[in-house]
Amino acid sequence: MTDRSSTDVLVVGGGPAGCAAAIRLAAVGHQVTVLESSTGDAPIGSGDLLVPAAVDELSELGVDIGAVGANPIDGTRLWRGERSVPVRWPHTRAGTSTGAVIRRSALNEALRARAADVGAEVRLGSRATTPSVERGFVRGAAIETTDGSADEIGCRFLIVADGANSRFGRGLGTHRDRRWPYAISANTYVTSGRSDDSWIETVLGPPDADGHPITGHGWVHPIGDGTLNVGVSMLSSYRYVHGVNIIKLLDAFASSVAERWGFDPGERLVEPVRRRTPLGGSVSPAMGPTFLVAGDAAAMANPFNGHGVRAALATGRTAADVLDEALTVGNSTTLQHYPALLEESLGQYHKVGRLTARFLGRPILLRTALTTGIRSEAAMGAALRIATNELRDGETGGAERAYRIAALIARFAPSW
Ligand SMILES: Cc1cc2nc3c(=O)[nH]c(=O)nc-3n(C[C@H](O)[C@H](O)[C@H](O)COP(=O)(O)OP(=O)(O)OC[C@H]3O[C@@H](n4cnc5c(N)ncnc54)[C@H](O)[C@@H]3O)c2cc1C
């Protein structure tokens, strides 16, 4: 590996979004450097469920998650109160119907190893601090390393993929629209004999301290290594959001599922941390003259459930396609296609998601949706197709019809 002081594409952030872009660009021969501020340790509070479409994205990248210990997952048991409905993952367009749970540290490691294999330079323990800007164009970044040294690297193009807080992105002028919902989550890990289960569990609307169902869900993800990931996620659109302590909500949720999953609710292998994930395209702009923004840095996570790995991998793919063309043709105006491509693939879905989040933020509407939905396997199956963005033309279930009506309303609703 060479230590480059200048590169074609500089990627800030070696998570799913940054690595997906780096792998694709390096694989077709471009010079790519990835800056990753961590030294490879597992981040506290992050996602480890891969829906089948994320598995498809990873296999396209040549990342074999089976080889790094992923636990295959057939679907989710959706719970509401004492009722539960098992729902298999919908098939992806490629025909995949198995998801996976994998420790995020293992996924990141596999992605970074793949990026290095195809020729990208991956610098761990290197934090991009400030962009180098020349006459309005981003031309590189200043770097601080974990051993305290400072460095600088130049580039033709830059990808901002530094995650939900995106300090580097903010330095380039990105901002979150505060009217739009975000997710507040916390999780921990526990030991359990059911770590090899091939089904995850999703509890819809777990109750807050006053007994109101929250606009959100609790989850149990069996990781396959003797542990479970147990967590909760709530949308900021929930009417009583300010009265909810997410760590206490996690404690209460963990106690409510502990017996079923055979773990000690007092045990926490990791101290939970409150995390915020921007959702549904609420951060803009997604590009500048020489940079693109991908993954959580561009708020690409799914507004229906807060999942963002699939969107991070997909937007990394789109960013790579656009930059490949810009580098090949030598014309940076190509970058202007990027926001349009994001809008085309996710714009309507995000808008419907934001509208739904507002609607379900009202306790009375949420209760009605939860009570009627959980009675029917078909309704829950359709709800999962919506939540995983696997709707198909021609499907005619109740939830699909509801989605289409919401899409129609969203076309005319204000842009929240
Ligand atoms: C508690 C919780 C649970 C979740 N569960 C799921 C789930 O089960 N499934 C799912 O799909 N999604 C889940 N998500 C969302 C998911 O984790 C994110 O959407 C996804 O990680 C986004 O990927 P990314 O590459 O955009 O950002 P990240 O994964 O955050 O990667 C960004 C990387 O950039 C690095 N970085 C940051 N700043 C700098 C800098 N200045 N210089 C260099 N490097 C930098 C970081 O160290 C990090 O490695 C969850 C989120 C939370 C908070």
What can you see in these coordinates?
The protein is of the alpha/beta class. The chain has 3 domains: 207 residues, FAD/NAD(P)-binding domain (3-Layer(bba) Sandwich), CATH 3.50.50; 95 residues, D-Amino Acid Oxidase, Chain A, domain 2 (2-Layer Sandwich); 62 residues, no CATH class. It has 10 helices and 19 strands. The strands form 4 sheets. Strands 1, 2, 8, 9, 10, 11 and 19 form a 7-stranded mixed β-sheet that branches. A 7-stranded mixed β-sheet has the order 6-5-14-15-16-13-17, with helices on both faces. Strands 3-7-4 form a 3-stranded antiparallel β-sheet. A hairpin with a 2-residue loop joins strand 9 and strand 10. Helix 7 packs across helix 10. The longest helix is centred in the C-terminal third of the chain and has 24 residues. It is globular. The termini are far apart. The chain binds flavin-adenine dinucleotide. The site of flavin-adenine dinucleotide has 39 residues, from helix 1, strand 2, strand 9, helix 4 and strand 13.
SSE blueprint:
Layout (H helix, E strand, L loop, with lengths): L5 E7 L3 H12 L4 E5 L12 E2 L1 H9 L10 E3 L1 E6 L2 E6 L10 E3 L2 H14 L3 E4 L1 E9 L2 E9 L4 E11 L6 H5 L3 E2 L5 E10 L7 E6 L11 E7 L4 E9 L10 H16 L13 E4 L4 E2 L6 E3 L15 H21 L7 H24 L2 H11 L3 H11 L10 H15 L4
Parallel strand pairs: 1-2, 1-11, 2-8, 5-14, 11-19
Antiparallel strand pairs: 3-7, 4-7, 5-6, 9-10, 10-11, 12-18, 13-16, 13-17, 14-15, 15-16
Helix pairs in contact: 1-3, 1-6, 2-6, 6-7, 7-10, 9-10
